[in-house]
Structure formats: C-alpha cells, structure tokens
Amino acid sequence: MLDDVALFIHIARSRGLSSAAAKLNLPAATVTRRLRKLEEKVGAQLVHRSARKFALTTEGDAYFEAFADLVTQFETARQGLRSDLHELRGRLKVAAPTNISVGLLEPMWSGFLNAYPEIQLTLNLSNENKDLLETQIDLALRVGPQTDMRLYQKRLGCVATMLVASPEYLAATGELNDPEDLRQHKLIWVSALPIWQLSNLDTGLQETLHLSANVAVDDIGLARQLARDGHGIALLPVSEFWENFETGQLHPVLPRWQGQKRDVYAVWPTGRLLNARAKCLRDYVQDYLAERPVFQGALPHL
Amino acid sequence: MLDDVALFIHIARSRGLSSAAAKLNLPAATVTRRLRKLEEKVGAQLVHRSARKFALTTEGDAYFEAFADLVTQFETARQGLRSDLHELRGRLKVAAPTNISVGLLEPMWSGFLNAYPEIQLTLNLSNENKDLLETQIDLALRVGPQTDMRLYQKRLGCVATMLVASPEYLAATGELNDPEDLRQHKLIWVSALPIWQLSNLDTGLQETLHLSANVAVDDIGLARQLARDGHGIALLPVSEFWENFETGQLHPVLPRWQGQKRDVYAVWPTGRLLNARAKCLRDYVQDYLAERPVFQGALPHL
DNA sequence: ACCTATAATTTCATTTTTGGAATCATGCTG
DNA sequence: CAGCATGATTCCAAAAATGAAATTATAGGT
What pLDDT score does B134 carry? Predict the structure, then answer.
C-alpha cells in the first residue's frame, strides 16, 4: 500500500494522472487503476479528476499532508543509499595522523586520488583521535590500541618503536649496554608511549621500565625534534624517522632492543555502513601498507 | 518498492521471516520471495538467514537505520488517518461561545455526548474568537460575521437581536415610539453589536443609528445584566434572555423593531480535514438549531 | 454548437505475484 | 549421531497486476 500512497503523492504533485504517469515512466492505465485501488482501500475518494481538471478532495488533502514529506524522505533515503552503497564517486571524509600522512603516506593519498578521480577526499589530519560520530568521518586511520567500543576496527599493519638519540648526545654520554643503563640518561617521554616495554631481538627477553623522564611531551613529532637536538633518548615509532634514517641525525640506542609494536587500524562507527568509497580506501591502504616494511614492523637499521 | 522496504523492516524487527510473516498475516513464501526481490533490486544481501539463525548484513543495518523510522511514521500516519477520518471515537476539540453554551445549548452538548459516548469532547467555551490553528480546535461554533479567510464556514442558524430594558427603567422614563427616541435614553453599548441597525417588522423600514452610549462593554452577558439592573436600553441577541423572557425581567423596547440577525456558523481551518467526529457534531448542531426558533431568527414576544 | 486535443478509463491478452503444499536446511536435544 | 522441530525455500495452479490499444469524457477554441 505504501507504493500506492507514494503514487498518489506523485499524482497530487503533478496535478494529473497523465503527467504523473509520464514522470514515473508508467502507463496511465496503471496509474488510474492503482489510484482507484487506493481510494477503495481508504474508503474515500482522494482526487476529483476529469479531462483537463484536477483537484484533491479534502480527504486527499489530508493524505497529501500526512504522507508527502514521508514519501520525499523515503525517496531521498533510497537514493542516498543507492549511491552511497555502491558508487565510487562523491565525498569521502577521512581522518589520519598528521605525522605519517604528510611523510610516508603522502604518496599513498596521491596514488588513491589518481586511481579514483571521482572521489572527493576530505582528509582531516590530526595527531589526536577525533570523535568520528561528531565529525561525521567515514573512516579513520589510527595507530596504537583502539579502545572505543563504538568503532569497528580493521588492522592494516604495524609500526615498530625503538630507542634513538642524536650522535652528539651519545658521543658526550657514551653507549648503553643494557636497558637499566637508561636510568643514567636524559629521557624524552611522549604520551603516546607511556610505558617503555622493551624486548630483545636475540633472546626475546622483555623488560618493562618505569623511568623518570627529563622531558615529557604529547606530540611525537616534537619528541623526535628534541631527540635530534641532543636533549636525550626517546622511544619513537620508526615511521617518525624512517625516511631520514640514513642521514644519521638519529642513532639507535640499544639496537638489539625494540619497543612495543603499534598496530595501524582503519576504524569507523559501528552504526554506520561502510560505503563503497570507504571500503575502497581501506583496501587501498591495506595493500599500500602491505608493501612497505615500515608498516610491517620492520626496523630501519636491520 | 516501498512496500518491500517496509516488509524488510518488519523482518528485521521480528528477527526472522516466519515471525514477520505471522505478524503481517502473510505466507512465508511471499515474505521470502519479496525479500529476495528487494535484495536483487538493492544489489546486496540484506539478511543473513538460515534455519534458526538470523542476522542483518552491514547493508541490511544501513537499510534498517535509513528506513525504520520512516516506516513507523508511515504506519502511524496511516493508522491515524484511518481512524481520524472514519471513526466516531476519540478526541474532538470544539470551541463555542460561553453564553449560549451554558444556557440554551447545554442540552445539545449533553445530547451529543449521550448519542456518541465514545467521542471525547473537549469544549472550550469563550466569548472571544480563539485562533483555531494555534489551539488545534477541530471545529468552532461562532455567532456573527466571520471574516477570517483561513476558515471554512457553514451557516447553521441565526439569532435575532432586539432592544430591551428593565420594566423599572421603562416605568421611570416612559415608552418609546420611534428609534429616534433612543437619543433621549441611557444606552448600553456592546462591542459585538457596534452598529445599531434596526428594521421595522411591519413596514420593513430600516434605520442605522449612530448613538452615544452611556455604558460600553465587551461582554454580552454583562450588558444583559446591566440592562436588567435598570441601567438603560441594550440591543441584545434574543438568545441571551430567551429562556427567562417570561419572568419579565427584561421588556421589549420598540417591539415592532428588531436589530440585525446574527448568523450562527460552524467554522474550521481550510487546511484541516474535517474528520468524521467533527462532521458528525456539525450536523448534530445544525439539526438541533433547526428545531429551535430562537436559532431560526424568532423573537420571544411574537 | 461543433471539433479537436488532451486526459482519464476500460478491455483483454500477457505477465507477474501470490499462497498452499511440499521440500529442504539446520540447530537442538536425547 | 540420529531424529525432531522449526525456519526458510521451491513448486505450481490460481489470482492479480500490467500495459498497449481502444474508447470515453471533457474543456477550450473557432
């Protein structure tokens, strides 16, 4: 019956059965019959009609007012779902961490846009985790443990962390032989890596260190900068210095030890269907990360 | 297609095809087929189903979220219209003038309620014309010219007006022979009858008088009371004193002259369908008034 | 008043949908 | 592991809907 009500709404808007039939690509006979069937069900005539004259009855007015907006919303929702579910065109709003996006991942964004020129990508870069529901983000890339239960998450890769310092700092203070030696050093702490959990590449031995930091910051990029400037030893994701590692501005400290690996995730809200574009991007990112050791947990000096 | 979407919503809510079929009073074969047809149109499976297990796909979730509220609104609107249009049960909000409603018309309200015990009548009495749209009145009884173009109106009857004064007042001042004599008297003016247009019952002669009133009030009941108390001559609708006329508390002044007749109307907003209850009441009122001379323009002393 | 053009309705052969009955699938219980 | 109960699907005759073509209705123009 809802289809017949929708038909009636179109008839009312078109102010005639023939023009409604034309708009809906239906024969006039079908429109006539279905309107009459609806009127029989309702138990009232909805339309006064004759050749060249058209008016709604008072019942028809009531029906129109009650259902017109609903029919519009139905059709809008249906259209939106059709295009949103299946088409690789239109808007796609993505959040991603600033550090890796303007560095290692810039070619990935560029490649995606070239591959899908009809997708209008809005890329919100931030090193903070924005609320996806509030900001209406379709998909977010995140690094590190994801604890928000409102989000679906798919693991796309992982990044190792390791201890680094500037060569000047190490020349002044001497090399370290053991994680315990860290206590004698200036340390740069960053909020993303609150606990320093180190594991030995050779023996598999694990140590969790509770250290007192000389400097504490909440931005990984700043921590890298401070380490490079000789202010101490930092535990950093290798993505932060992978590209420039050969320049020697940051040296590994305790090179046979590594920090905990940080997984890279795609996340999106549970209530939200992942449309074709977001799925496409997610798969594109996964493929891109699969081909780069830095996102498969590799270390730059090995 | 909207019918199939609605069916899908019911399937999702019932968490099964068989239970949805039972609720909708449809064969399971029909439900199965129409769901599959919808899935073909959508180009995606909406439901994972097997014997004893049921789950929506992510596309199904999206469809459910997009359409569930709309389907509910559709069904609510449809149910509302069905009952509102045709059933003589439920709410009916009516506005009517206080004076005639607690007097002459009280038996009419009582009779209507007895005749239609399932109608829940809300009777808003006032001698002011309330905004029907704002107060969501279904139907209003009004007396006098109706100039609001947003209202449909149907004339149900009419009430004559005439000049009256207390016997004490007339004994003190003497009888009148001609409308011009009114100028020598104390007059009680009421806003509902701003112009005194008198017509002679015998000759048909009409006079429009522009008089200076001693007292001006905006409530007809108060005007009646003042006249009864000997404060002068008032031009009043006969409905105001029809019942008590034989008690002699108010005497006709210039008994062969009458004031302008005031029509009684049922009015309702043009955009609003007059439902079965309001129609029923309107017709009931018209029949009731038709049987009472006071509402057919009669004078009490003739 | 008549004619024409347009809108609505009706007819009927064809297509599609329906629903009862039969069949299949599967999860739970013993 | 087998059997049973329940849910889902398929089959097919019957019913309903469809749409092209023909017909009817009517409003406007001459």
Answer: 61
